[in-house]
Amino acid sequence: EQFVPNKSKSTPVSRVAEQSPAIVRPVLGKDRTEPIKGITKTMVKVMSEALTIPHFGYYDEVDLSNLVQLRKEMKYVAEKRGIKLSYMPIFIKAASMALTDFPVLNSSLDSKCQHITYKASHNIGLAMDTPEGLTVPNVKNVQSLSVLEIAGELNRLQSLGNAGKLGSSDLSNGTFSLSNIGTIGGTYARPIIHPPQVAIGALGKIQVLPRYDYHGNLIKAHIMNVSWSADHRVIDGATMARFSNKWKELLENPSKMILDLK
Ligand code: CAO
Q1: Domain coverage including residue 87
Q2: Which residues are catalytic?
């Protein structure tokens, strides 16, 4: 029997419980049961299917200090052309450039796991938080689009998403996904692969944090964490890490990215 400490003598817990009546508060609301429909219904189906995928997680941090500066300038130029430029089009373009070197991450696996198809197009899906819930439209053929063209597409998809008007062509045939949860908050996430795709990245909030530069000086750096999930049946950890390194290198050194832009 447990004892509650008391100044003079100890009282057994069981006796204390017997003496005090249970507090019963009135229930103010009523339970509500609703049918699962719309975007939530799709989410149930896709996520249940995703549960069959053995997810491998890989995490890193990216120093976006150079990119933050460059985006300020590009944002102003884009605005003059009527386009809102966030970081997302740049993250998407860098992902496409890295996918060119690691095409297995832009592949799909058939349901019986007998064939893998390397997709020619980089149709990069982005998790979008809309008034109706989570939806994942994709920007088609990112490999042939400029950053500004991707931004224009993203603006279009966001307007449609906010109006609940995304059509099946924008929602189907994605080949790889990014989820920028950092626009809402958080540093790490564990993203769930959108089958039949084989990889997805979740991006955390960009934070100003202390870091050491190349010369050992303490500096203010703009740091963002990335959390990748990959289908471990077809992607090994080393491939995921090399892909992530390439993506990170492009974002940390935008000049390298510009040199390779097609
Ligand atoms: N950290 C900090 N700020 C960020 C950021 C990050 N990781 N990513 C973008 N931002 C900034 C943008 O640059 C923009 O600032 P400016 O006005 O200065 O340009 C601001 O946050 C708002 O961005 P946005 O949301 O309008 O546009 P976006 O292109 O960055 O993101 C979208 C678009 C669709 C990805 C985003 O709106 C969204 O829905 N995010 C949530 C995704 C989600 O729910 N994921 C979970 C999926 S699992 O359930």
Answers
A1: 54-260
A2: 232, 236
In a domain? residue 24: no
Across the strands, what pairs with 218?
212
Residue 74 domain flag: yes
For ligand 1, is residue 206 a contact (CB within 6 Å)? yes
In a domain, 5, yes or no: no
Contacts of 61 (CB under 8 A, 6+ apart): 223, 224, 225, 226
pLDDT in tens, 88-107: 999 999 999 999 999 999 99
Q: Is 149 in the pocket of ligand 1 (CB under 6 A)?
A: no
Q: Which CATH number fits the domain that encloses residue 145?
A: 3.30.559.10
Quote ipTM for the complex: 0.96
How far apart are the CA of 204 and the centre of ligand 1, in A? 10
Q: Is 181 in the pocket of ligand 1 (CB under 6 A)?
A: yes
Q: What is the mean pLDDT of the chain?
A: 93
Number of domains in the chain: 1
Q: Tokens for 90, please give them.
A: 């740049």
The structure tokens 């991006």 sit at 203
What is the bridge-based pairing of β-strands 133-135 and 199-203?
Answer: unpaired
SS3 of 155, please?
helix
Of the residues 85, 86, 251, which should be mutated to test ligand 1's pocket, given the most ligand atoms within 8 Å of the CB? 86
For residue 2, what pLDDT is reported?
47
**Per DSSP, which regions of the chain are E strands?**
3-4, 11-12, 55-63, 107-109, 116-118, 124-126, 128-130, 133-135, 138-139, 176-180, 199-203, 207-212, 218-231
Residue 48 within any structural domain of the chain: no
